[in-house]
Write a structure and sequence with these properties.
243 residues, alpha/beta, Rossmann fold, Arc Repressor Mutant, subunit A, 2 domains, five-stranded parallel beta sheet, three-stranded antiparallel beta sheet, 8 helices, 11 strands, 20% strand
């Protein structure tokens, strides 16, 4: 793939916090405001979802246990409409809860309680990845090739004009695999370059993202590329024709 740089936006990143703990929400807003971010917040799931869909937002910090609409339902609804990066925040730290969050499109999962230093590091990592995604683009395919296109602003892929509805993490995964077409990539490499966290044997987040990516590409009838598991290694993207 060939890429060209897009101009970066001068305005500060806009963060929406959806958290029912009023004191914690105010504390996070004050801290992130001091860092120069633009902040908005809600203490209810339904209201937070409406704000995320109505306003331009660069990142959503989303609690799971929310009144009126729980965070996982908010995430599911949001993913049908937007590719905004979402970091779940919850005291529910069990492996299955994390897998459920990732399977519904979360980009990161921050268990409570957490330090402001860790929150800052994870926010910075997510926003860096968004900036990188938006700074890359691909040339239009030639007329005689299938119209498989990467939309870096929406962080999504389309085939013959039909969008796949990828999350930001799924888009980064596809981009990374495509950049290393036919080269098996280890899970450790993919965790670091796509999810930006160390790989552990019990972490199934990557497998969930791969499964969702395959399903979404299949739903828009992309057949020229396949994502295959490589035994004892990780995954590889194979091309069967122009893509």
């Amino acid at each position: 793939m060939d890429y060209y740089q897009l101009p970066t936006r001068p305005q500060p990143a806009r963060i929406l916090i959806i958290e029912d703990d009023v004191e914690l929400c105010a504390h996070l807003c004050a801290h992130l405001s001091r860092r120069g971010f633009e902040l908005s917040s809600s203490h209810r799931g339904d209201e937070g979802l409406s704000m995320a869909l109505r306003f331009a937002v660069d990142l959503v910090l989303l609690d799971i246990m929310l009144p009126n609409e729980n965070g996982l339902n908010v995430l599911s609804c949001l993913r049908r409409e937007r590719g905004i990066p979402v970091m779940l925040m919850s005291a529910l730290g069990a492996e299955q809860d994390r897998i459920t969050g990732f399977s519904q499109g979360a980009d990161d999962y921050l268990p409570k309680p957490f330090s402001l230093a860790e929150l800052d590091a994870r926010i910075d990592a997510l926003l860096r990845r968004v900036a990188i995604d938006r700074a890359m683009d691909v040339p239009q395919p030639q007329a005689n090739r299938p119209a498989l296109e990467l939309d870096l602003l929406a962080r999504d892929v389309s085939f013959n004009g039909q969008m796949a509805g990828l999350t930001a993490s799924e888009f980064r995964l596809l981009l990374t695999l495509h950049e290393h077409t036919a080269e098996p990539l280890t899970k450790a490499f993919l965790y670091q370059h796509v999810l930006h966290r160390p790989y552990t044997r019990l972490d199934r987040g990557l497998d969930v993202h791969v499964c969702n990516l395959r399903r979404k590409l299949g739903a828009i009838q992309v057949s020229a590329i396949r994502i295959e598991a490589v035994r004892h290694q990780g995954y590889v993207l194979l091309c069967e024709g122009p893509s």
